[in-house]
Amino acid sequence: MLSPHRQGGQAQFIERPLAPTPNADRFTKALDGVRATLGEAHTLDSVAEAAGLTRRTFTRRFQKTTGTSFGSWLAEQRLALAQRLLEQTDKSMDMVAFEAGFGSATSLRQHFAARLRTSPMQYRREFSKGSARVALSGV
């Protein structure tokens, strides 16, 4: 099957869905396991092993599936968990950082600054359940 030609040297992209395989299921389960335990240490090698793949094969499949590196994806997952914790709980910054897998409040602040351009405290002030009550009451 030939792909249609595009002007300007732009490559044609044709999505080819992958049929489910036992390795694909292990791959998905490995990522689900990481999401369920974001506060724990996760290395590329340990997750590749859990997926039943070599590091190189896991890296290629991960990039193809998510469009990003494992390290960036893990940081994004941890950041999303930290955001939920800041929005929904009154836990300390140290506890949020620990539960989200950042290790320290300093690391949490660095990730928030780099990716969200704000601090965890400012984020909490703007998006926590308590701030919604204040905004609704007009206080």
Describe the protein:
With 139 residues, the protein is mainly alpha-helical. Helices cover 65% and strands 0% of the residues. The chain contains 8 helices and no strands. It has helices spanning 22-36, 44-50, 55-66, 70-88, 93-100, 105-116, 120-127, 129-137. The longest helix has 19 residues, at 70-88. It starts with 21 loop residues before the first helix and ends with a helix. Residues 1-15 and 133-139 have low confidence and may be disordered.
Mean pLDDT rating? 85
For the report, how would you describe the main beta sheet?
none
Q: What general outline do the C-alpha atoms trace? A: elongated
Helix content: 55-70%
Structural class: mainly alpha
Low-confidence stretches: 1-15, 133-139
| DSSP strand content | under 5%
Output the radius of gyration: 20 Å
Task: Give the secondary structure arrangement, pairings included.
Elements lengths: L21 H15 L7 H7 L4 H12 L3 H19 L4 H8 L4 H12 L3 H8 L1 H9 L2
Helix pairs in contact: 2-3, 4-5, 5-6, 7-8
Keywords:
mainly alpha; disordered N terminus; single chain; 8 helices; 139 residues
Brief synopsis:
By secondary structure, the protein is mainly alpha-helical. The chain has helices at 22-36, 44-50, 55-66, 70-88, 93-100, 105-116, 120-127, 129-137.
